């Protein structure tokens, strides 16, 4: 795999990739989705986040991807304050992470190739500079023969693999994935898990939210549990 | 070879991101109207300048005969005097027949023979260095002719004022239409962004800055406006050319003397339309993105 995390070449000790201190968040109708969440994801760590439905796993991931901001506490990403960073600073944080959404968030009018290449295209990279990497990544997730297919023509599992390819294609420092193996069969689930493990070995920090605790156990990752708005386990 | 790479990459924004065919039609109509306003302003300005120039090159002298002298004799003497003044090309006493012909459309034949008419001299002045009313009056006084010189300045000022007003109104109509086009684009941008909320969020979460996202909408609507502006301008050019063809050099009406070059002046319309759309879409998109928090 030619995709390399940017951090792999660094020699100085890297700051924690994620630091949440006393974070609280809620919506108007449910004000206490997250309460006093303390969480540290050291650089190069691999964590699984589990918990019952409605526990706030997706909300926590939204905070980490800066789709939402905490209403209380502090949020640091890559050693920098991201919780109160101005809107103009958010793209720089997001370019250092890859996100796999539970609902995939693929663009139906683009081909599988263009969907996977989207973060690279948005960063201003030239087609020639990334086409081989994108093709290789899609081949690796089993979509090598469907480069020109559009998402409506793909199965649920194929969409999920495409979403994962898009998240990892830039070689991000942090990968945040919401149920990334939820729509694929067991064999592909293992294959995708191996992809995450490989990226983690290369230095990428990984956080996967999943109901599947057995997958978490097989991965050898640290297990975090979110319940009643609080995180337990890990290095919090 | 990757099949998807053989052709152009699909645009990041889907086609018809927000009622675009209708927006294109609205912009084309607005550009058509703006172009007609511009042509109208140009033609009105040209007509007014033509009339003013014509009035500047003429003067009328009313002669009062001395005791023992007929009106025709006094007018002939005044014409002879004025013909020798610098800046006068020609001075001609107006005979009664010509004066009656001028009045007939307003007064009719019935009373015209009994009507006492003033004795007039029409003076054609040098267009480049016309004689002033003062020099004409002095020449007449020196020759002992009792006369009043009218250089048409009052009428000329009225014509110029009216022409200025028409030009300002036409320019205002042009600016208002351009503003309406901008507002339509801003509205369409907002509607398009509202319809593409999920896509915008996906782009944001994949590292796109607000400027990059606004740029996508900006480019989309700028190109659309350029195309619609070209269609509107082309239609206006055809109308202008048809009017010129129908009316000849004098125009369909003397108030709107259209020329062939008027049609060419409309050629920057697509560029202007695109510029208005680019600015409107950028501001609307950035405002909406900021509003998303």
Automatic annotation (TrEMBL), chain A:
One of its GO terms (biological process) is cell division. PROSITE patterns: ABC_TRANSPORTER_1, ABC_TRANSPORTER_2. It comes from the Bacteria. One of its GO terms (molecular function) is transmembrane transporter activity. GO terms for cellular component: plasma membrane. The keyword Kinase does not apply. This is Cell division transport system ATP-binding protein. The lineage of its organism: Bacteria, Pseudomonadati, Pseudomonadota, Alphaproteobacteria, Caulobacterales.
TrEMBL record, chain B:
One of its GO terms (biological process) is cell division. The keyword Lipid metabolism does not apply. It comes from the Bacteria. Keywords: Cell cycle, Cell division, Membrane, Transmembrane, Transmembrane helix. The chain crosses the membrane at residues 22-44, 163-187, 221-243, 263-285. The keyword Lipid metabolism does not apply. InterPro entries: FtsX (IPR004513). One of its GO terms (cellular component) is cell division site. This is Cell division transport system permease protein. It comes from Brevundimonas lenta.
């Amino acid at each position: 795999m030619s995709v390399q995390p940017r951090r792999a070449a660094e020699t100085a000790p890297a700051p924690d990739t994620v630091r949440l201190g006393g974070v609280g968040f809620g919506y108007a109708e449910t004000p206490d989705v997250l309460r006093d969440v303390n969480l540290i994801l050291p650089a190069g760590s691999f964590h699984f986040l589990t918990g019952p439905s409605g526990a706030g796993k997706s909300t926590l991931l939204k905070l980490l991807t800066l789709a939402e901001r905490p209403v209380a506490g502090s949020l640091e990403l890559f050693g920098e304050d991201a919780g109160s960073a101005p809107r103009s600073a958010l793209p720089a944080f997001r370019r250092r992470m890859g996100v796999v959404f539970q609902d995939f968030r693929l663009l139906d009018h683009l081909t599988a190739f263009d969907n996977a290449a989207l973060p690279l295209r948005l960063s201003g990279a030239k087609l020639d500079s990334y086409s081989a990497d994108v093709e290789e990544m899609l081949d690796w997730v089993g979509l090598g023969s469907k480069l020109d297919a559009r998402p409506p023509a793909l199965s649920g599992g194929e969409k999920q693999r495409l979403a994962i390819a898009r998240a990892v294609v830039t070689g991000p420092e942090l990968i945040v994935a919401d149920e990334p193996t939820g729509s694929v069969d067991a064999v592909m689930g293992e294959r995708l898990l191996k992809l995450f493990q490989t990226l983690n070995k290369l230095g990428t920090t990984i956080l996967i939210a999943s109901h599947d605790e057995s997958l978490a156990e097989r991965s050898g990752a640290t297990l975090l549990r979110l319940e009643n708005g609080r995180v337990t386990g890990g290095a919090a | 070879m990757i099949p998807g790479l053989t052709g152009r990459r699909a645009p990041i924004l889907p086609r018809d991101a927000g009622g675009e065919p209708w927006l294109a039609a609205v912009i084309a109509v607005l550009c058509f109207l703006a172009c007609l306003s511009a042509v109208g302003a140009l033609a009105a300005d040209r007509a007014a300048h033509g009339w003013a120039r014509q009035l500047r090159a003429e003067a009328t002298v009313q002669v009062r005969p001395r005791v023992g002298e007929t009106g025709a004799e006094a007018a002939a003497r005044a014409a002879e005097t004025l013909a020798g003044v610098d800046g006068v090309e020609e001075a001609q006493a107006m005979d009664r027949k010509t004066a009656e012909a001028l009045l007939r459309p307003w007064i009719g034949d019935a009373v015209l023979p009994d009507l006492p008419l003033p004795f007039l001299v029409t003076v054609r002045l040098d267009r480049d260095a016309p004689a002033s009313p003062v020099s004409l009056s002095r020449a007449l006084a020196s020759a002992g002719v009792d006369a009043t010189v009218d250089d048409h300045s009052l009428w000329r000022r009225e014509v110029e004022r009216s022409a200025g007003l028409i030009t300002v109104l036409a320019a205002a109509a042009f600016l208002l239409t351009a503003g309406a086009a901008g507002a339509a684009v801003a509205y369409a941008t907002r509607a398009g962004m509202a319809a593409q909320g999920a896509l915008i969020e996906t782009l944001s979460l994949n590292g796109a800055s607000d400027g990059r996202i606004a740029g996508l909408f900006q480019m989309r609507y700028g190109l659309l406006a350029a195309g619609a502006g070209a269609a509107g301008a082309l239609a206006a050019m055809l109308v202008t050319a048809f009017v010129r063809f129908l009316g000849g050099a004098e125009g369909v009406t003397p108030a709107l003397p259209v020329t062939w070059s008027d049609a060419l002046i409309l050629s920057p319309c697509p560029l202007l339309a695109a510029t208005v759309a680019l600015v409107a879409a950028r501001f609307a998109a950035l405002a909406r993105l900021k509003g998303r928090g």
